Structure formats: structure tokens, C-alpha cells
Amino acid sequence: MSGLGGLDRPGTSTSPGARDARSNESLVTETDGPDPGEPGSAPATERRARRPAVDPVKTLMHRHRELCERAVDPLEIAAGLEAHGVTDRTAARFRHRDVFSLAEEMYARVPRDGDAPARTTPPSAPRVRADWAVLALLPGTLCAAAVTALRHAEGQARLIIAVVGVLAVAVVLRVALSRGPLRVADRAQRPTAAWTCGLIAYAALGDGLLRAALADGPDALPTGSPDGAWPLAAAGVLALALSCAPAAWCAHLFTARARRRLAASRGLEEYATSVQPLLLGTFALFLASLAALTALSGAALDETAAHPQVLTLGALLLLARLLGAHGFTHAPAAVLGAAATAEAVALASVFAARLPGCGFLATPVEALVTAWGPGAVPTLVCGTGALTLLIHSSRTLTRASAHATPDAPC
Amino acid sequence: MDNRPSRHPLVRIRSSRCESSGQRRLPLREIGGALVRIGLLTEGGYPYVSGDARLWCDRLVRGLGQHEFDVYALSRSERQEYEGWVSLPPQVRRVRTAPLWSAEDDGVVLGRSARRRFSERYGALASALCAGPDAQDGVSEGPSDDVADRFGNALYGLAELARDEGGLSGALRSETAVRALERACRAPGALRTAREARVPDLLTVAAHLERVLRPLSLDWYEDVGLGSVDLCHAASGGPAALPGLLARHFSGVPLLVTEYSVRLRSHYLATTDAPPPVRALLAAFHGRLAAEIYGRAEIVTPGNAHARRWQEHCGADRAKLRTVYPGMDASRFAEVGEAPERADPGTLVWVGRVEPAKDLVSLLHAFAEIRKEEPKTRLRIVGAPAGSEGAAYLGHCKALAAQLFPDEADGLHAVGDNPVSFEEIGGPELPSLADAYAAGAVAVLSSVVEGFPISLVEAMFCGRATVSTDVGAVVEVIGGTGLVVPPRNPRALAEACVALLRDPERRERLGAAARARALELFTVEQNIAAFHGIYLEIVARCPVRRVLLDETGEPLPFAVPAEAHVPGRWTGPATRLVARGGPGWAAGPPVRATPRVAAEGAR
């Protein structure tokens, strides 16, 4: 309350209008017994002679300048005046019936130039906090450690390392994504998490299984080596785990930039058109970093990097998570579910074709694999899903309501 | 009774009205009367421990044991829910709560046609908010009424939609809502300030509207909820009265609104740092909501003339307004009030919370003038500082007092003391509030800003002559029983105090008159009696006409007999309803409130 500072100096009012106004009234409203007189009348007349107040309301407006300039309607001025102790009896001194009509005059007399001063709203961009930025690196690190250990272990130890590694990466991934820009409300997470696990498992083992199945395998369980009968695509999984960090950073970049544009934009349409390139740019940035990571992990593990599958799956997962983080949980769950189901169906159809009389079931998958190799199935499935989500998010994530801060001041 | 708040937003507590004979309340406290089922609507108030005005509501509910209360409470923060409830008397049949703070999504997804209806109605609401002054203050009253009508229709339309669809909180935050707001702001004839709204402003307004309109999505308006009460009593205006408006719309339940501080005014004072378009739109919303509430309420009871003026200005019909002064517990001050001779004749006393608005500096300057006339006078300032600002102000005042008045002693060999003392209640010298007033001959109030001056009423209860500044509701409270001076005028304050100090007879006369006035106007009993009368009046004048239907959908004749409003239960309840974890006596066999007791009461 800026005005209350002035309360500390009673009787030494800074405003001539107040002094003059005060002298107009009898000092004691006597209600019982004789009038004690008007001791203040002599100095008051002296003051009035010295400074005649031509326009008392103008003086009052000057005193409550900030209030008048800020007010959006007369009642706001009335409330503010009353909070500063102006009553109807004070208003009577300004020749008004009550505070409301005084406030109306003040509101009407405030000079308002056509163009309001440009407000500089500080953009409430989410700050980069060390915790999630560093945590996002952990899944990749752990995954790299697990894969390295898997490479150097033999026999029984491999199984243990694989199980421990998968559990550790899953836990760390959950922790890393539970804060920062990719955080999704807990309630919406459950179905999506299962579908995501299915998709990642397919990325690791699905291609090998499909190839083995088409060659009437598999004859043994996967050994964890890239050159067995049922090979493990460790490079792809490692690249995906490593891409957690760029995903979080890209999401942060998108959120922060989108919010900054929000503060600057005047219309919803204008905002949507300005956010669209931002979304696409962020998406492309993530894809580029994922491609680099895939190449890197392929080179490190001496595997042929399975670029298309990893890129499409990464894109799908990023978009699903980004949508979820902005409150759109329905579409990602549906698309992830459809993708995981499609992959499972593709695998199942190959095995089902072994049943007598059902050979036709495997025809589409076989044709696909002979044309482009086993990686075509996940690429096609995840690519379709990612494209769907990209179109969806270019409509939903560009809405202003997707970027509303939950704790907006009222 | 289990009073802890539940995580579940809707809590039903059914307390049995069957008490053992020892604990049975007499169903009648007076001859005649009727049993009224009151839906008490609060927002951030009763029954929460930290609620506003919970004391008043508690006294009201306890004082009207012959009626039944259903409490419908909106909580304001998570902390408030965590802190729990006050203990509830047995006449509270049920408590239902809902949060106004959490951003919980109800998960309702609107279908295509519902979305279109929502868009239309929200758009109508938004355009009513953005309607500029041209539409508002036209030549005749017509356009203004038109805006109010549009607002009301849109509000009830949204409420109906929420009832059909099961919730609107997701839709109220959706892009549809923001787009409707934007369209309304950009429409020709919209408020000048609203036209400048940017996207973040629109989002803020949409979020705020969602929060305020959350009562629309509640399931309180069924026949077993607010549809079953005889009247709704909103303990404050604004969001608290919104369920009452909807209950009136859906079931025709009459609405009574009590405002001790005008909600619209506190809204204006609270939102000072938001951008102008946000403030303009929200002010328009709260203004229109207040007008709608005052227009639809059967009776509006302001707590003082100041609130009454605001309500009149916001469109309340004078015929509906009944000022009901807040009640205070007079028994604490009875002993002091009946013994005026206990007062120290040369002492002034100031009691209150220390904060800059109380203008203690002015009081100290006035006291300096008083000391020139009456050198033996002492001033006791009793009160605790309010917040850090208050603490700083208290320090400032203490320093000023030490500067203005040197310590003085009776003789050469006595230890000196300052004529101004700063004390707090609870110490050995002033164990209670009444003792603080008892210590002085004259109670002084020097505020520059004041709402309803409670300390002045307390001084009046104590039978002390008072000198107060002319602020807030002071003149209304004091009537002709004390001296009133302009604010920020230490000399006038000093003159009035000296006049009273020199005239013990007049002091006594004024004190006695003040006590009589306070006992007449500001006791709890008058407050409760006033509301009791208003309840009966509403029930008599505009009873809820309920048509009960049988299984085939035909109206049942005589389904609601006149006995439904007879105080007490004439028949034992058919089913036993016991509160969760209820007390042992509630598990006993049902006890009839026998007609014999009522007959005795009527004899």
C-alpha cells in the first residue's frame, strides 16, 4: 500500500487540497452536550487565504494519481479511495453525493491517450534446473555401462547383467522423466508406459526375432550378442537411452520459447502460426541429435546402425511425451497402443502362418521383409505413428491454452 | 464425529438426529415457528478452522438449534483443507465440500454437440463481460438490463450444460474458451481495455473464470442436495453465492445473501498487479455476478451501512436489503460494563491491532496536546502488531512516544515511568480484553481506515465513553453515544478527549448510553434473532414448491404435508443413519421426539 506511508505524518499533509478540504468542516461532530468549539478555525482560514483550491477534485486526483491511472472502472477508484479513508462525508466536500459519484468523476477525468504504453511483461520462462538437466543424462550413461558389461560378460552373468541393467535403466528413466519439461501427470502415465516398454523391447529384439522367425527359428533364446541366431540390437537401444538428454533439452527449448512468444503475441491465430515453425524446428533438432547418437553408438558397438527404426521410434516417443507433458494424453496413448499392437501383430502373423492352412497370414510381412529387410516393419509402424502425432501436435501444441501456466495470477 | 477433511472432494456426513433422552434438545424454543432446512453456503469459511467468518457462522448454527443446516463449503487452499474443521453441532445434518484451488481435471470430454453448446454459451458469457460502456449506460436502462440478462442466461446455460455433461472444468480451460474470449474482446463495441488483451491475459482470465465457475460442475443441485433445502443462505457474496443461484435456478430454492464485507470491493482491492485487460474483464465478471446475485436473492443482509451502499450501487433493490449487524459476545464485558466506577479517571485507552491504518502517530500527537491541558493523563496502548509491517510501525510509535514524553516519577526518589504504555493482552496486568477497557476512562479510536470497528463496539459493551475518528462504519456504530472527530486531526482528537476527561458526569452518561446501544444492536442474540426471523419470513413468503412424483411419474398429492415444517420430528426416522465413526450414543435405539414434549412447550 503505497498510500499508507503518508499516514505516518498526521496533520502535516503534503497536499494543499487536503489541508484546505479539512478546514472546511467543524472539527468535532458533537452528539451529546455542548459544542466544544472550533479551535482549528483560525489557522484554517489563514491557510485558505494563502492557497485557494480552485479544483479540489483535481488535487485529489493528483494525490491518488496512480490509482486513477490504473483503474479499469469507477468502482475500482471508489474501492481504492475508501481504502484510503475517503468516506461519503469527505465526498460531500467535493460536492458529490457519495464516493461512487466522486469516483465516477475522477474516472471520467483521467486523461487517456489512445495508445496505451506497451507493457513489458516479463516472460515467465521455466528456468533450467540442474536436477533434470543432469538426470536426463543418467539413462544413457547407465545403458552404456550395461551394454559394455554385457559385451564382456559370459554365460550366467549375462542374464544377471541384462536383468539388472534393464531394471536400472527403467527406474532411472522414470526418475529422469518425472521432473523437468517432460513431466506428465501420474494419472495419465500408466497405459502409455506399458506401450512404450513394448515398443522399446521390439526395437531391441524384434528385428532379430522376425528374421529368425522367417527362417523357421528361433532355435535359442537371445544371448545378448549382435551376431547370434537372435541378435540384440544394442546400438539402437543405447541411442534411444542417450537421446533422453537431447529430448529433455529440446522440450525445454520448445516450452521456454513458446512461453516467451506467448507473452509477446496479441492474437491466438498469430500465436499458432509463430509456434508452428518452432515446433518443427525443435523436432528436427531432436531428430538430428538422435541420428548423430545412433551413428555414434553404432560405431562404438561395431554394429550397423539401424537408422530408420531408431529415428522413427525416437520421434514417436518424443512427440507422445511432449503431448503428454502439455496435457494431451488421449492421442499419445492411442497412437502408442496402436503402434505396439501393430508390431505385435506383425510378429504373431509370422508365427501363425506356421499353422496348417494359414500360410497366407505371413504374406504381407514376408513381402515387406524381402523388399526392405526386417527393419521395415517397425519403421513403417513407428513412422506412421510419429507422422500422426506430428500432425496432431502441430494443431494442439500450437494452441495458447496448451502453454498456460497452471498457477496464473488472477 | 470425524472432522478431518477427506481427500475426496465431496464428503457426506450424516449425523443422526436421534439422541438419548439426556442429550435431547428440546425441539421448541418458542411457541410456533417452523423447521427450516437451511443450506449454508460458504467459501473459504465455516466449517474450516482457518475460515473467514467461521465464528459468526458457528454462533448462527449453534444458536438456531431448532432448524437443520446443510453446510456446503468451498475451500480456498490446500492448507485450509489440511487444517480441518471446527466441531459441528448436531443440527448440522451434512457437510459437503469442494476445492476452489486445485487444478484437477475432471476428465470429462465433451462431444461435438456439447462442445458447440459450450462454445455458444461461453461466448455469450464472454461478450456480456466485454460489453463496453456504450452497451452499458445507454440512454435508457434497457441496454444495461440486456447485458445483465445475457450474463445470467449464459451462466445458467453453462450450469445446465455442466449438469448434463457431468463437469465443465476441462472445457473452461480449453482452447474453445480462450477463442471465445478473444472473439468477445475483439468484437466491435467491446470495452476499450478489453480490446488490448493479449494472449497471456486471455489465458489468465480463462483460468480465473474456470476457478470461479467451478461450482457449476459440482453435483450439489440434485434433489438430495441443495434441491432438498428450504432456503440457501450464502455467508458471503461472490463464488459462495453461486451455488445458491444455481439451486434457485434448478429447484427454485430461495436465496439469502449475507455480506459483512462486500465481495466485489475486496476483489477490487485484491487484484492490483494484474494487467489492465485482466482486471477489466474480471471486474466485469464479479460486478455482473454480484448484480445477478443481488437481483435473484430474496433478501440481502449487509453487515453495515457501508456494505449496504455498495450493494445498492451494484443494483440491489432497497426492498430486499436488511442490515443485520454482526453480533458479539457481550457476556465477556458484562462485569466491566456494569461497574463503570472501576475506571481510572485519568487514563485513555486504545485497543486494537497495531498497524499503520490505525494511525497511532496521530494519537500520540493528540496525546501530547492533551498533556498540555491535563498533565496527569496517561495513555495505554493495548494490542499486538499485525505482521511485519505492524511490528515496524509499533517500533516507530514506541520511539515517537519516548521522544515526545520523557519518563516521569512521583517524587525525587521514585522510579520514573513513561505516561504512554504499550501493552499486550494476556500479561499480568491485563489478563483479558475486558480488563484493558476497564483500565481506561475514555476509549480512543484514531484509525484513518476502518471497516466495522470491533474495538469500538467492545468499548461500548464496557460502558466506556469513546472518542473516535469519522471513518468506515464508526458513525453508524456509535450513533449518538460518543464523540466523533475527523480523521488525521490530532488537535480535534485532543480537544474531544480533554472535554471528556474534565467531565466525569458526561463520561458516565455517554458510557451508559453506549452500553445500552451496544446491547440493543450488537449482541449475538440480536444477530441470531434477526436471521431466525428472516428465515421464517423467506419460508413463509416464497416456499419451495416441490412436486413429488411416484414410480409412474404421476404427481403425488399431499406428498409434502404441512407437518414437514413442524419443529422436531414427529415420526421416528425410517432408517438409521449414523455418522462415520459416530459417537456411541448414536448407535442406540431411535428415540422419538414425543408429541408430549411439544405439547408442553406449546401450553
UniProtKB/TrEMBL annotation, chain A:
<feature type="transmembrane region" description="Helical">
    <location>
        <begin position="234"/>
        <end position="256"/>
    </location>
</feature>
<feature type="transmembrane region" description="Helical">
    <location>
        <begin position="371"/>
        <end position="391"/>
    </location>
</feature>
<keyword id="KW-1133">Transmembrane helix</keyword>
<feature type="transmembrane region" description="Helical">
    <location>
        <begin position="331"/>
        <end position="351"/>
    </location>
</feature>
<feature type="region of interest" description="Disordered">
    <location>
        <begin position="1"/>
        <end position="55"/>
    </location>
</feature>
<feature type="transmembrane region" description="Helical">
    <location>
        <begin position="193"/>
        <end position="214"/>
    </location>
</feature>
<keyword id="KW-0812">Transmembrane</keyword>
<feature type="transmembrane region" description="Helical">
    <location>
        <begin position="159"/>
        <end position="177"/>
    </location>
</feature>
<feature type="transmembrane region" description="Helical">
    <location>
        <begin position="306"/>
        <end position="324"/>
    </location>
</feature>
<keyword id="KW-0472">Membrane</keyword>
<protein>
    <recommendedName>
        <fullName>Integral membrane protein</fullName>
    </recommendedName>
</protein>
<feature type="transmembrane region" description="Helical">
    <location>
        <begin position="277"/>
        <end position="300"/>
    </location>
</feature>
